[in-house]
From TrEMBL:
One of its GO terms (molecular function) is 6-phosphogluconolactonase activity. Gene3D superfamilies: 3.40.50.1360. Keywords: Hydrolase. It holds the Pfam family Glucosamine_iso. It comes from the Bacteria. It catalyses: 6-phospho-D-glucono-1,5-lactone + H2O = 6-phospho-D-gluconate + H(+). SUPFAM superfamilies: NagB/RpiA/CoA transferase-like. Pathway: Carbohydrate degradation; pentose phosphate pathway; D-ribulose 5-phosphate from D-glucose 6-phosphate (oxidative stage): step 2/3. Signal peptide: none annotated. This is 6-phosphogluconolactonase. GO terms for biological process: carbohydrate metabolic process; pentose-phosphate shunt. Residues 10-202 form the Glucosamine/galactosamine-6-phosphate isomerase domain. Hydrolysis of 6-phosphogluconolactone to 6-phosphogluconate.
Length: 213
């Protein structure tokens, strides 16, 4: 399968469409099995998406929200992804959603939705280029792995490639020209150690919906 690219002129249009697609899937899964699970990324890109999603009408009390990765910091730190999600997503109509931290990732598996981000260095989650743990992160059947980045702050706990692939709906959300250039390079790239996002984008067994401005 190949990646599907969805281009938007404006960030607000992207956020509108992605949040409504996510809401549709969450509702469908709640109807089907009584609950729905979603893993989200940290960073600055998802803030507007979180705010939009938090105003979507659905039975949030049956939604479990987890993380694609986390920094090893106090949960109240401004650099904590748990704090980010609690501040921007678990509010308004979504205030009843249940947050599940990385240590309890198993409670969410298999995941219904993952929303990945990407750095300008082509990392996704906390799978950083040429990191010493990357081979293990690509090959293990564990859901999470501890990673020490060489070029980013804090030790991390990251979802593994196995965790990311075992998800029904995989979205990549990127904004800006620079990231679009990185995306185009990553789509043609076969060195997954140099550009970890390529391991997700170019995997023949999965389909990734790329939402980009
Ligand atoms: O917690 C994190 O840092 C991430 O999950 C990470 O993979 C993020 O998605 C990218 O670094 C993009 O971050 P920005 O959105 O800030 O560019």
């Amino acid at each position: 399968m190949s990646s599907i690219l969805k281009a938007f002129d404006e960030s607000s249009e992207l956020v509108e469409e992605l949040s409504s697609q996510i809401a549709i899937i969450l509702k469908k899964e709640i109807l089907r099995k009584g609950f729905a699970t979603i893993l989200v990324s940290g960073g600055s890109t998802p803030k507007k998406l979180f705010e939009k999603l938090s105003n979507c009408s659905l039975d949030w009390s049956n939604v479990k929200v987890g993380l694609v990765d986390e920094r090893v910091v106090d949960a109240t730190s401004l650099d904590s992804n748990e704090n980010l999600v609690k501040t921007y997503l678990l509010k308004n109509k979504a205030s009843d959603a249940q947050f599940i931290n990385m240590q309890n990732q198993n409670d969410l598996f298999p995941f219904d939705i993952i929303v990945l981000g990407m750095g300008n260095d082509a990392h996704t989650a906390s799978l950083f280029p040429n990191n010493e743990k990357l081979k293990e992160a690509f090959e293990t059947k564990d859901l999470t792995i501890n990673i020490t980045p060489s070029n980013a702050p804090y030790n991390r706990v990251s979802s593994t490639l196995y965790a990311i692939k075992n998800c029904e709906h995989i979205f990549l959300h990127i904004e800006g020209e620079q990231k679009f250039q990185v995306l185009q390079k990553a789509l043609k790239n076969s060195d997954i150690y140099n550009m970890p996002i390529s391991a997700v984008l170019n995997d023949k067994d999965i389909q990734v919906e790329v939402y980009h401005t």
